[in-house]
Amino acid sequence: MLPKPHRASIVFYVSDIVRTEAFYNDVLGLGLVRQEGAEPFWLQGTLDSGLDMVFFEMEASRGNTPALVFDLEDGGIDDIVAALAEQGVTIVTPVEEAPGGWSADFQDPDGFGLGLYQAAEKPRSRK
């Protein structure tokens, strides 16, 4: 048996690494960093929770990599979903009640499912 892992990476295979870089950095503000060693470059970032996200440009079919749900620690889900829609992001499921809070689902440029979640006690709007 292998030792229990201490970290996890979520790997996405994307059709256009430059478009992916712009989406995750400019729209979601994740601060992915270009890495060398693959052609073209690949992207890597670590969320505050310690979860690593890795992106490679290669052939893949839509949906064969996992969806990722982002926890909105400070709330504001309504404002965030509205801002995503204004930037042309496909909203799959608008804000709706979820166990213990609120959630919404959207897609990145390659159609991968992403989600947002916030606890019920957090404000849905920051305005």
From TrEMBL:
Pfam family, one: Glyoxalase
Endpoints of the signal sequence: none
Domain VOC: 6-119
Superkingdom, taxonomy of origin: Bacteria
Name listed for the protein in its UniProt record: VOC family protein
Species this chain originates from: Nitratireductor arenosus
